[in-house]
Amino acid sequence: MGKLRVFEIVFDNGKSVYNPSELVNGKCIVDLRGDMKMKTLRILMRGVAKVHWTESRSTGNRLGAYTEHYNAEIEYFLKRQVLFGSETGDGREVLTEGRHEFHFSFQLPSGGISTSFEGKYGSIRYWLKAEMEKPWTFNHKAKKAFTVICPIDINRAEYLVPVENNMEKVLCCWCCTSGPISLYARTDRKGYCPGESIAITADFENLSSRTIIPHATLHQTQTFLAGGKSRTRHSKYTIVTGLAIQPGRTMSWDAQLLKIPAVTPSIINCCLIRVDYAVRVRIPFNIIS
């Protein structure tokens, strides 16, 4: 009975990031000390989106509370190839001593899959798993994860349009009401890539009695869906702070740049997980003035 020295999956050219419709090519390496009988050596490629979280519920009586679980899963694909032997074999195939390389090739679907993602309440994962099935003994397994990026074409017309908004707020302090604070903000377009900067144009008018300091922040919202319920997580990334605006003054931003760091791409085509980004321009006031 041979012994297994090496059992691993290696991608061609060291590549581990793929786009939809691309070929995932590589080899399964088996290195044996002595001959080994086996039924089959297979490799599988799988893609799965999964969410899970818990919520505490009160029973309204002496029994106290209980925990409710929310789960959902989508299998994007499950493909397999036999590299050696047969799925219906009797285990008499013999793989001889030494190093063997079994090449494989899978094609990713051209659509219907989402960008890889890891979050607190869910994930979108893709991986390869090699299984060596032997007669009358335990099987060997090797696993290798890879990343899928589903790019969004930010040159489409819908992502080239500016985004704008305005607001007005009146501050109250005890029995006194000050004048309004107003702002108008606009981005140069709607779609961006990591490493780019968002150009923000804004007009601020401070008719209150307090000093305000405007700032802009890039926010990420992760939404997880299961059982008719949702769970969200919010994160803040880059922030840019403007100069203080004294009472009765105005100020403008002319293409104030907000740098986008290396963040997870937006996910808009998965029914279990969604990742969105937004720029928030705020005008908090200084309570000391």
TrEMBL record:
Residues 177-285 form the Arrestin C-terminal-like domain. Signal peptide: none annotated. One of its GO terms (cellular component) is cytoplasm. It comes from the Eukaryota. Pfam families: Arrestin_C (PF02752), Arrestin_N (PF00339). InterPro entries: Arrestin-like_C (IPR014752), Arrestin-like_N (IPR011021), Arrestin_C-like (IPR011022), Arrestin_domain-protein (IPR050357), Ig_E-set (IPR014756). One of its GO terms (biological process) is protein transport. Gene3D superfamilies: 2.60.40.640. Belongs to the arrestin family. This is Arrestin domain-containing protein 3. It comes from Trichonephila clavata (Joro spider).
